[in-house]
């Protein structure tokens, strides 16, 4: 098998085991020695490193070993004729390579690592006795060795390692490249982190570039004094930013399709989006007996499946109702109390302090709601983890939507105080974004420093002396001490991208829904997002462990949330314009008010009709897909005819194309 330069053997996975108190004379029973020998027998390359308190076992899989694992997993890969076929080790030239020239993507390689690591089972006729220091335990027949050691807390953690050469390259041309404000090496990000993280950064980059247009309009409105013409200029600005948002969402779909085509990712992907070492069963939760019982009457079988389907939907509806009622009964009074206190307090300093305390207090309510949502999600029935994660996103965003916007709605629609509304928006945008950036960039470092302090303290206690400096010389040990890139709501369904996407969605809602009240917010958002691209890249490359790769074809439920916020912004900005036009509160149907109502309906029509004007898939992507599908169909038809007729000649199925 030909090895591409990008596929040279690199240590990509690390296992952490505790240091043993004493070396065993009989290495055949020592669990770590048994594990190392098993890995060598599989074909892994191994490097063992002694750390301060733990031992690290780095693994590298040669390309041939990964190919065998992919074949055993019956992994499907894209071929040069456009079909996704089962991988075969002897036919590697038939499969399309990745943008960086490698045969397997990072997500595919990690899936192979998972299979190889956890696929080591006891094939003996009896249980094997293993030892770790003074403890003895049984490795039962048919059990996975690594899972047995994990249950005994011997294998502490398994995590992916950074590739130091590629990491430094990405640091130079991506995380620290401030000269190109929104430019990013997206193909390299995809090759290193996987499709889900790459799609997020592609979305963030395009969103930031498009943000420059409304930011420029907002600056013009802020710097130029229009006087009495302002009531005419604001509706024009409002129409412009709504059309901008509609076009952005549609053109992002086109870019998304182009990226998926370039990366050769299957559109019909429906499996577990988390290609992780700790996999979660993602299949539809249908009782096995319904599938295995071949003698069941067809009518009863149909009724049973329908009962499972509709009971599952009713459970989802019940859980959604629980979340909505909890928001209304528990969070709404708290939000309204804060908004009312802010309105009646006169001191700006006290208002600022109240806002800071409020932002900290709501974190507790949100985490409580997130835990409740996670428990509700576990009771629901979904086809795969991707849909489970989307349902969780909708529920959590409902909590944050109420938390972030109800106070602003209170000032905008009830008190109709424009000056207070602008002040609230400035404080929310500045405080929340500055606070988020501080937490994002400081917490990982503080966690890393605290873990190093704990390890040093433990080592000094073992030595019985506080003298001498303890150094962490191993790169694997330093990465082990770094925090994982995980979501604040939990790690089962979502990684750290949940918090990053949530931050973007809340920002989008804040600047869009109250655009007429504070046009300059778009300029603040553009500056924040330019910084966000680099800081998010830096924390992934330097502050966190290398994230587990997750497969994805879109940004998921977040795009639907952006669409919802566009519709909300049409309604809220029209309400703000009506308020500005009718400051006396007469609510008479005059030409100005009628024009605003007509404008609202026209914009809503444009929102839902623009998708027919701009296709979601670029023409070249569609043409290429149709062409390859036609070729594949022709080849399959000819091969089938050859098989039926019993012909002996092999069909030359690779046609010369342009």
Automatic annotation (TrEMBL):
One of its GO terms (molecular function) is chloride channel activity. InterPro entries: Anoctamin, Anoctamin_TM. The keyword Transcription regulation does not apply. This is Anoctamin transmembrane domain-containing protein. PANTHER family: ANOCTAMIN (PTHR12308:SF73). It comes from the Eukaryota. Its main location: membrane. The chain crosses the membrane at residues 197-220, 232-252, 321-340, 352-370, 391-413, 504-530, 551-581, 593-610. Keywords: Membrane, Transmembrane, Transmembrane helix. It is a multi-pass membrane protein. Residues 190-626 form the Anoctamin transmembrane domain. It is found in: Membrane. Pfam families: Anoctamin. One of its GO terms (cellular component) is membrane.
